[in-house]
Amino acid sequence: MSNNSAIEERLKSQIAPFVARAELPVDRGAIRRWCSAIGLDYQPYLDPQRVEAPMAMLHFWTVWETTRSPMSVNQRLRSELTAAGYPAIVATNYELEQFRAARIGDMLTTRIRLEDISEEKQTPLGVGYFATELHEFVNADGGLLGQLRIRCLFFRPGAPPSPRPKSTGATPPTMATARPVDTLAPLDIAVNATTVIAGALAFNDFELVHHDRDLARSQGLPDIIMNSATSLGLVYRYLTETAAPDQQLTRIAMKLGTPCVPGDRLSFSGHQGADRALDIRAMTGRGEHLRATASFASAAASGERAPSASKPEA
Question: How many C-beta neighbours within 10 Å does residue 80 have?
Answer without folding.
Answer: 16
